Amino acid sequence: MIVITAPTGHIGGQLLDLLLDETSTRSEELRVIVRDPGKLPDAVRDRVEVVAGSHGDAEVVERACTGADAVFWLAPPNPTAPSLDAVYSGFARAAAKAFTAHGIGHVVGVSALGRGTPVEADAGYVTASLAMDDLIAGTGVAFRALANPTFMDNLLWQLASIRDEGVFTDTVAADHAAPVVATRDIAAAAAALLLDRSWTGTGEVPILGPADLSPNDMAHIMSEELGRPVRYERHSLDDLRAALAARGFSDPIAQAHVDMMRAKDNGLDAGRPRAPRSAGATTFRQWCATVLAPAVHA
Questions:
Q1: Residue 216 and residue 172: Cα distance in Å, rounded?
Q2: What percentage of residues in the chain have a pLDDT greater than 90?
Q3: pLDDT single digits (tens) 189-199
Q4: Among 145, 129, 150, 147, CA closest to 265
Q5: Above 70 in pLDDT, residue 147?
Q6: Which long-range contacts (CB under 8 A, 24 or more apart) does 246-254 make?
Q7: What domains can you pick out in the chain, each with its CATH number?
Q8: DSSP 3-state assignment of 136?
Q9: How far apart, in whole angstroms, are the C-alpha atoms of residue 94 and residue 99?
Q10: How far apart are CA 54 and CA 143, in angstroms?
Q11: What contacts 24+ positions apart, CB below 8 Å, involve 53-61?
């Protein structure tokens, strides 16, 4: 039995589709924790066991972990949270207790690059995510943290600006090259680990994408794939903080985002060598052709 958290989210939803494809020919059972079961497609709901509620709730994770062998763990975003602990370690504490109480064998979690870098300790979301990894690893469960850089799919948040103005923004330097990954590659890595549970111990699995790219590189590729000019516009960290506040982010969460972006500009994602299992199959050009372009032209 595999438990999937956040099954209606971007990564969890793609993971669930992959696992449903694989388990159609094997005897692996799937259980999902979801706040609103109505958001699951009927065809999915008929093939999985549903536990309704939040996976931050002790009673919910107790029910979900009963009789389970493995868990996919993703802490959901909470832009209005009172603290980072409430989003990461605080949110995961009930689940960590349930992993121990129910003898969960394997946990695969979504995490971030940055461990071991000079800026790790002051990297906002990333620092908090790594602390949550340590909490889960401390339960004694076999644990793999999928350590990710920035997602290609984050550009979909700027779809209107890219489509209507030919502009996307960020806070890093225009020529700053760094890893970037497609969320479907994160889902694929999680599926592989959850289906082959021969691994033991704890550790990270970096999912880096095939190549480091700068915002200028990305603008060039987007322009070619969309058939229209796209340019990058750098915003300041103060601009970012103000934009997040305008969207209703709490002060601690807005600051955590600012701290993470400052750390990224200072090399948070740099220096990880690529290996076949960490490269990720999807190039940015492929992602633009198959995800961004259809969204822009819809």
A1: 11
A2: 88
A3: 999 999 999 99
A4: 150
A5: yes
A6: 247/79, 248/79, 248/80, 249/79, 249/80, 250/79, 250/80, 250/81, 250/82, 252/81, 252/82, 252/83, 252/84, 253/78, 253/79, 253/80, 253/81, 253/84, 253/87
A7: 2-152+180-209 (3.40.50.720)
A8: helix
A9: 9
A10: 21
A11: 55/5, 55/6, 55/95, 56/91, 56/92, 56/94, 56/95, 57/94, 58/94, 58/97, 58/98, 60/33, 61/33, 61/94, 61/95, 61/98
Q: Find all residues with CB under 8 Å of 220, minimum gap 6, and list them.
A: none
Residue 47 in tokens: 């093939």
* The pair of three-digit structure tokens given for residue 26, joined into one six-digit string: 């094997």
Cα separation, 150 vs 168, in Å, equals: 15
CB within 8 A of 214, min separation 6: which ones?
173, 174, 175, 176, 177, 178
Residue with tokens 């993971």: 15
3-state secondary structure 60-114: HHHHHHCCCCEEEECCCCCCCCCCHHHHCHHHHHHHHHHHHHCCCCEEEEEEECC
d(CA 67, CA 22): 21
Task: Write down the pTM of the prediction.
Answer: 0.94
Determine what percent of the chain is predicted with pLDDT higher than 70.
98
